[in-house]
Structures are given as C-alpha cells and as structure tokens.
Amino acid sequence: MSRIIEFRKSAQKAEKQSVQGKSCAFTGHRPQSLPFGFDESDKRCTSLKSVMRDQIVALIENEGVTHFITGMALGVDMYAAEIVLDTREIGTWSITPIIFSQYGMDAPAVPGTP
How far is it, in rounded angstroms, from Cα 68 to Cα 31? Predict the structure, then answer.
C-alpha cells in the first residue's frame, strides 16, 4: 500500500510541474509475461506498440497531456517511454522515470530528489 501512496505523491508532484496539469503514468507487463516474450519484431509486439503510439498521440493532441511518468521496467514501461520520446515533433512535454527501491520506499522516487 505504501508504494501506491508514494506513487500517487510522485504523480501529484509531476502534475504540479506540468504546464497544463495533465499527466499520464505507464505500467504494464514485463516481456517474459507477454506472448511474444523479448521478440520486438513479432507482429503482436509491433501491433501493441502501434496501438500504444496512437493512444499516446491522442493524449498529447486531444487531452493536453504534457507529462508522462514511467517505471522504466523492461516491457510495456519501456515501450511507452520510447514512444513518448519519439513524439517530440508533436509538442512540448516531459517524462519522469519513477524508481522504486527494492528495499522499500525510503529512497527518493526520482533520482536527485530529497
């Protein structure tokens, strides 16, 4: 439960930093849990990434999302981060990696923060 609370605090901080106040956080399955595993050339993976890209672009263009948050884990987290980074031509936004310590939430959620 403390991880959820800490994540919400991080998301709230990110929202305050966002120009328009709209943020989007990503989480999802790791490659070993996906039917195509680590094979990003598999048509199911490319299809997933295409749907994710369409949704991310819609959030930027139609919903005014300017801040994205990701756990940066392998799999869906990384796919989303890569897509966000590839959408720079659409507009101005920021991306925040959230780091969850394996030893609990005593460590800062974002590197370099107190």
Answer: 21
